[in-house]
């Protein structure tokens, strides 16, 4: 996650005054109905292809994938050992955490937050989502909370390195058009941030890590209407 100074620097480069900023992604965009896709002019629904240098990086990442998997397994084994050796109070704390995680996951599914958007292609979120990769072929967006709305920035094309250097503003949403929302108002540590539009439709973003810059910013704001 970018530091506060890095966030400010990136926001200054964009010519905006940032309250908070964080790189975010979206999940795979579902296939819209044929008539919706046709009316929108058949926009791209996937990020751009990697350039040759990026493809080399992706190939190297595949080479290291077994090592990453091994480290993950070792981490899981370490966690299991910690649980086995935990004191009674620690086991109770871990059980409480597991129960909270299960409740969080159940609420995510119940509210449909495991989807990339609310599902209405004719709503504001659906129409905005259709133009996601037309504005930039890069898979990430720097989401900047500003005093009067939201600014999204990204490189015009997909890049493997130097995204901060190449980024530009790709979308602006005024406060009357959309707001950023933590759907759990800080109750759970999640990577989920919603862009909620004025018609109550929403688009789900994924932050780099739980309770990052945007979550912390939203915790300081008045609670959004449910």
Describe the model.
With 226 residues, this protein is an alpha+beta fold. It is 42% helix and 19% strand. The protein has 8 helices and 7 strands. The protein has a 7-stranded antiparallel beta sheet with strand order 4-3-2-1-7-6-5. β6 and β7 form a beta hairpin. It starts with a helix and ends in a 7-residue tail after the last helix. The mean pLDDT is 85.
Index terms:
single chain; about 230 residues; alpha+beta; 7-stranded antiparallel beta sheet; about 40% helix
Anisotropy-based shape: globular
Number of strands: 7
* SSE class: alpha+beta
The number of helical segments is: 8
How far is it from the N-terminal to the C-terminal residue, by CA? Answer: 28 Å
The rounded Rg comes to 20 Å
The unreliable regions are none
Oligomeric composition of the shown chains? single chain
What is the typical, i.e. mean, pLDDT?
85
Q: What profile does the largest beta sheet have?
A: 7 strands, antiparallel
Helix content: 40-55%
- Strands in their spatial order, largest beta sheet: 4-3-2-1-7-6-5
Order of helices and strands: HEHHHHHEEHEEEEH
Question: Mind sketching the topology for me?
Answer:
Blueprint: H1 4-14, E1 18-25, H2 34-39, H3 52-85, H4 88-110, H5 124-130, H6 132-135, E2 140-146, E3 149-154, H7 163-166, E4 168-174, E5 178-181, E6 192-197, E7 202-207, H8 213-219
Antiparallel strand pairs: 1-2, 1-7, 2-3, 3-4, 5-6, 6-7
């Amino acid at each position: 996650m970018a530091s506060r100074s890095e966030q400010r620097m990136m926001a200054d480069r964009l010519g905006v005054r940032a309250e908070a900023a964080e790189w975010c992604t979206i999940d795979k965009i579902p296939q819209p109905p044929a008539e919706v896709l046709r009316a929108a002019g058949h926009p791209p629904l996937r990020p751009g292809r990697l350039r040759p240098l990026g493809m080399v990086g992706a190939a190297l990442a595949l080479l290291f994938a077994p090592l990453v998997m091994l480290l993950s397994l070792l981490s899981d084994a370490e966690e299991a050992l910690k649980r086995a050796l935990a004191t009674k109070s620690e086991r109770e704390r871990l059980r409480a955490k597991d129960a909270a995680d299960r409740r969080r996951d159940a609420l995510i599914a119940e509210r449909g937050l495991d989807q990339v958007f609310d599902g209405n292609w004719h709503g504001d979120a659906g129409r905005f989502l259709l133009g996601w990769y037309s504005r930039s072929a890069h898979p990430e967006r720097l989401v900047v909370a500003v005093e009067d709305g939201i600014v999204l920035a990204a490189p015009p094309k997909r890049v493997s390195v130097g995204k901060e250097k190449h980024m530009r503003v790709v979308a602006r949403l005024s406060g009357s058009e959309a707001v950023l929302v933590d759907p759990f108002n800080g109750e759970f540590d999640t990577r989920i941030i919603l862009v909620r539009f004025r018609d109550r439709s929403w688009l789900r973003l994924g932050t780099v890590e739980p309770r990052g810059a945007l979550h912390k910013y939203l915790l300081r704001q008045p609670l959004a209407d449910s």
